[in-house]
Amino acid sequence: MMRNRKYFVICCAIYLFFELALIPTYGQSQAFLQTWNRFRHIPELRHASISMVVMDASSGKIVFQYQPEIGLAPASCNKVFTAATALDRLGPAFRYQTLLAYSGRIRSHVLEGNLYLLGSGDPTLGSWRYPSTTSDSIWKRWIHALRQAGIERIQGDIVGVDHVFPTQAIPGGWVWEDIGNYYGAGCAGLNWHENQFDIALQPGKSVGDAARLAGVRNLPDAASGGQPMQIVNELLTGKAGSGDQAYVFFDLTRPVIFLRGTVPLDAAADFSISASVPDPVLYAAQQFQDTLLQAGIVVNGQSLAAHLHDSIPPIDLLTVLDTVYSPPLNKIVYWFLHRSINLYGEALLLTLSALEQKPASRETGLNMIHQFCNQLGIDETAVNTVDGSGLSPINRVTAHALATLLYQAQHKPWFADFFEALPVIHDIRMKDGYIAGVRSYAGYISDITGKSWVFAFMVNNFTGSSIQVRDAMWKVLDAIKKGHAFSAK
């Protein structure tokens, strides 16, 4: 018995020796290490937290790591988790559906009932990014559908319906300074024009002068049948070359928004900013009613929003006039990652949840992302997130988790769509992330020798200029692009 055990141990040792001998270990070149050390000692990083992981794209072998398991805010690099999970669980061909339907009956060209817009979470409805989803194309087909049905007057209301998503459009963890601006737009089951409207601005004659509110396009009403939201303009004129420093702030107690910050002295004639819409469901109904009136279809009722606990007739008692399908998911993910659209991330998160339960919840959507990560061999606790977009500063993920997802994604049937959706930044196929005090990058690098690497690189709590930190991070990535940064020993 003892002889057999000894023989078994010797065999195992021999096997492990040869097995390990076939797995290359990597060292870093002197040039790369010098670049890394210079990066580590720039003044802006004196109090910063840094994490980086680089993997061999073909084997998954880690060739460089620095604090790989420390949880940091990823900013928009968080979107790669949402995008990958959505492609895997929903499929690249998935499409949202929005229904135009009515209750009651049509008599003498009058609809004696309500007109309903029933959403399923489509974040592209009314978006300018796709030919089939623009405001004009959607309105045109819906007006055509009404005329085909013989409707020239609507005796009832225009009702936007969201019975699929929570009534809280803004995720917990988003900050007040963000939610008034276009990138802080909340997500509902019925969205319109990416839940934003435009505000045209012009500078004063001199630095410090009051900036002028030149116009507003598609300003939402404060409430159903109410007056437009009030805008209080506190903007000043900034120095030439100072760029867009104008921001929108909601008053959380009144239907008022404040414009604060500066408009550059050399602003273009068409300078504008975009603000978020407080109630997307009501906004869609309001915009449709306005369009109907312009088309000569009279609406005797008002615009209303029906949320989770508001009753409407059962769908099988409604007459469906039209069904609008969104672009396929792979096209949605393309713009989600390319333009870092937070609204799309929250819509995908809630749509994932809807696979498991209705109405959807953010908690269930997040659990699905964490479960998917776990299936890829990622510790669920390494992805501690509260939204699908990365806008919240309280998200925490590790560089190792990010890099592992990117490596494992290469072996999925949807990888071509995922890879194509990542933008090319600084000649590198990668997602970037930026919120206050945070810079992050994650993606794929091909060096001049043709070797491919997977990487995740995050910096939190830097001081000074974010551009300087960005440039310093790019120098580290450039050192990889030059080739021979990592070599098997």
UniProtKB/TrEMBL annotation:
Taxonomic lineage per UniProt?
Bacteria, Pseudomonadati, Bacteroidota, Chitinophagia, Chitinophagales
Give one GO molecular function term: serine-type carboxypeptidase activity
Q: Which family does it belong to?
A: Belongs to the peptidase S13 family.
Q: By what name is this protein known?
A: D-alanyl-D-alanine carboxypeptidase / D-alanyl-D-alanine-endopeptidase (Penicillin-binding protein 4)
A Gene Ontology biological process annotation? Answer: proteolysis
Keywords from the UniProt entry: Carboxypeptidase, Hydrolase, Protease
Return the NCBIfam families for the record.
PBP4 (TIGR00666)
Gene3D superfamilies, per database record = D-Ala-D-Ala carboxypeptidase C, peptidase S13, DD-peptidase/beta-lactamase superfamily
